[in-house]
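User: Can you predict the 3D structure for this chain?
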Amino acid sequence: MSESRTMHHTNGLPPAQGLYNPANEHDACGIGFVVNITGQKSHDIVAKGIQVLINLTHRGACGCDPETGDGAGVTIQIPHKFFARECSRLGFTLPPAGVYGIAMTFLPVEKRQRLLCEGILERISREEGLSVLGWRDTPIDGSAIGRVARGSQPYIEQLFVRGASGLSEDALERKLYVVRKRAETEVAASDMDDKGDFYIPSFSARTIVYKGLLLAPQIAHFYHELADPDVMSALCLVHQRFSTNTFPTWQLAHPFRYIAHNGEINTLKGNVNWMYARQSILASPLSVPGRPAHGACHGHADSRSLVIERAHASRQEGVLRISRFFDGTLGRPRRDRLHRRPRDRRYARPQRSAAGALPGNA
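Assistant: Here is the predicted structure, written as structure tokens:
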């Protein structure tokens, strides 16, 4: 097997060798967030978010190819007006906002393998009670990015699916989560040569992620639609990656589906093991916890955050549980419930009397 083929099997990362092991990867980056606190959507928020990202260029890095960044991306709300217009040109009609979801997908470039991945996603979507509306090739400009980034660039498409009649937006989000996890598991277990190129940056009825192996100033040129006036959002989360101890890949660019993180999450393996130990308390009739795939510390945190949020009926309860996960209290026994040995009275601290004198010193 050639070295390049081995790289494909490990999502662009070299295999463990010598003192290097991909399990020890961690990184540090820069983030920004622009939001309209009244919830008013506009293209101005997207434009300002991209400008924030450009201002964070110094927080990122590049390799031997100065035009290939360690990764950059943005998360915005789904611009319904824009996609309704674009999908009508492709021959299918979108239902109202919140009734459908969009999967931003990274797929193998080789056509046969790409079609296999598309078929897996469509079949699982139908098995979960969703209707497949259609696919859209994401317009991109490969000349806007570096040579190394183009060499590993996946085929980027968007899948549109509709929820069943009467399905709430929260319930649809959970369905989309299940479809994504099932598809990831099935592709990973397949014998496709380029299965490592399969990745779903986002699959949601609320938000969409545009990211890649880019430098901050490249993102609006690579993803044409981010400059369209109909791409409107009330929030824009941006991330510029600095891969201090990791190999940059398209998959590990930020933002992830739920979070973007600046810095390193310490005791990664300990936290991952804690989550495995806590899976029994995450059992929920609403969702099924999934085991995280290999990734940087941020990827694990993002995966666990989604598991916790999707397992609760209300977003407020899910967010509260996520905060307990990050401060280390989720699933751990309360301190006042721990069994303690009774204090030996011979060594108890003497108590002062009401007058302030110690016993025997009056």
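The first strand starts at residue 28 and ends at 35. The radius of gyration is 24 Å.
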